[in-house]
């Protein structure tokens, strides 16, 4: 993977006011490219011990390195990075459930990707991963963030852990189980 760009989430900037401290001393977002795949990866979320996770999002949709910080992919990781450090028992939850869902509030999201819901209009599917992204993390574990279609989020909300297991199987069957893209069809 080739590192193309970095974006620092500056704690003293008014644009990032109230952004939580990350256990590993970050926050940074890095943009990598490998072939036709683009990867947004956090740096500084993992402390390498009690909090082992860094977030990543793989996308087939092109990201302009010069405009990386305002891409939808970076924005999803940015918003996830607001929430994840405050989730109690994340490590234990992932060990028990393997797959988790998360809802974030994002203004301006396309209607076909947005679900009017009090807990957040955008659904994200979280999957621990040991792919090539993990090789970039000497002291952490990669946690994939996959953009969900609204129908997929509703399916998970209605079916709990069983729904998440089924959805993971559907993603694998669709191909690109860890990849997010704006043209992807719903698997339910």
Automatic annotation (TrEMBL):
Top-level lineage group: Bacteria
Protein name: Suppressor of fused domain protein
Organism encoding this protein: Chitinophaga barathri
Lineage: Bacteria, Pseudomonadati, Bacteroidota, Chitinophagia, Chitinophagales
